[in-house]
Amino acid sequence: MITTKQSMEDDISDVLSSVVEDVGDAVNRNISGAQILQELLSAPWLHTLLKIYECLSQFQRATPSPFLPYASGLSFEILTVLHRAHRPSAEARELCSLLSSPHVQALLSTHDSVAQSDYLPVLPPLPDELPEDEEAVRIVCLVKNNQPLGATIKKNEETGDIYIARVIHGGLADRSGLLHPGDLLVEVNGNSVVGMEPEKVIHILTSSKGTILFKVIPNSAQVSIGQKPVYMRAMVDYCPLQDSSIPCPDAGMTFSRGDLLEVVDQSDGQWWQARKLPCGASFAGLIPSASMLKSKHQPSQIHTCIRPFTPADNEEDPTHSEDKRILTDLESNKEINFDEADCDVTDGFYLAGFRRSFRLWRKTCYKKRRQSCTSCSPTTNALCSPYEEVALYQRLPQEIHRLIILIGASGVGVNELRKRLIKLNPSTFQGPVPHTTRPMNEGEQTGRDYHFVTKELFEYMVCNHRFVEYGENRGHLYGTSMDAIDEVLKQGRMCIIDVEPPSIHLVRLRNLKPYVIFIKAPSPERLRQTRRNARIITNYAVNRAFTEEDFSELEETSLLIEAKYKQYFDSTVVNEDLQDACMQLCSLIQQAQNEPQWIPVSWLPTQDQ
Ligand SMILES: Nc1ncnc2c1ncn2[C@@H]1O[C@H](COP(=O)(O)OP(=O)(O)OP(=O)(O)O)[C@@H](O)[C@H]1O
Questions:
Q1: CATH code of domain 322-433+485-603
Q2: Which InterPro entries match (predicted)?
């Protein structure tokens, strides 16, 4: 019967072909309507459909079945025979090496598992006495692998009941879909757990091997809402092992400032579940919620200045009161005017912001800086929100470029790198023209060398928060203004600035969307090797070689900046070889401008923009 049916299906297209033929004959005999039927039946789509149908029926009939369920055994036998051979041929040796390779053996073993339908571990039989009401109790059988179970339990002290407190996202319990927070645990592996201490239950769980059988009463109020992950940048460090309030330290996740976290569960007001990105772990870990973490971290007491404080900072600047300021050029042993140009022109483009006078105000003691240490410290700011919600953002071609900020310890090479970048492509990269209250020198132009302004105007700009940074040196004020940055960006160029780390938060603005690159000092040995012929500018001398004290201070400051501000860094470049560092910077900047990057959600364009 089946055979007849199959052969009928086989021949169905032949039958149809003959129908077409017959209809063709009918057309020849001028039978009405036959023409239409013929066109229909000879349509290519109908033939394609029939072909597919035939293929499917053929596949259904020829269900593949294993020729031999024990391919590994056969391979073993062959290998034994080959090993026994006295003088095996080249082919036999090749076969021997093929069959003993781990890949082939794994393949054969997989073949055998499939052939024997050995997909799952054999589960123990369900208990005989199942209650009538199936909904009342759920029997859950989980097969333990090397992963933790991924669930925490808690005890109701009044009733002695043990509940599932939390199911870790992506863990074994979560993937089973059978255990949920609030489920009442009745038995584990046949042991009643009612009234038992949670530690004892955990002991049963950890000491069980293979399968674990749970009897639970499902939480009837349970609502499973699939939460959309939220992405956060950690602004503080966290270690669950040092946190006595965490309900289960083993389930906790360590993170440090700057880490990107994918928060997958925020249903608990105190403990969230998150994964660190880029994602290595398949399951999440417990982290304190923002409010919880905030309550743990009280703002730190003292603001540490980033440059180590030296005794010289306490001394009055000897040149401060002098009208004519002098520096010594150690190479030529000459006294030089401190306002002497240290400028450059490349391809007709003027390199602004590299004047000695401008760079020197930063080197004056911190007491003369016009920033208040407490208000400028981003640490206090960061502690206000231990997580910063972020989202992927890609700049659109019509948008202005993101502001590029280089951060680094004094002397690490920030100015050198910035200058090299601008020289490399002056029509793309540019620095902002600084403001100063010092008088204009001969040959200088306002808006090119500096924006020369009156003290009153400078102070007015300060009051209106127009400066990213400003300071005083030898009686004159110097600063980098927001307007100067905007000017570069509006010209369609990429603005590259370097700021002192405490000023980062002042430029973390939606319109600038800064991309911060930390210029890191290389290892102590490489630092000394590479800077053998380098020259630095200090408060009293230009072109002075690095001293051992300079190197130590640079290393210390570099570490300090990294430790304190890394949550603001989008990337890091180690300035070992200048050319390499410059190339790395170029590629990072291109990525920042043209590829998706994580930015705070508060910087994302709003709908009306
Ligand atoms: N990778 C490097 N290899 C060798 N020399 C370097 C390297 N990077 C920078 N230098 C040299 O080190 C000296 C100091 O660099 P630079 O003036 O750029 O420091 P800086 O970080 O801008 O410091 P400051 O903020 O104090 O001005 C310069 O002579 C510079 O050419």
A1: 3.40.50.300
A2: GK/Ca_channel_bsu, Guanylate_kin-like_dom, L27_C, L27_dom, L27_dom_sf, MAGUK, P-loop_NTPase, PDZ
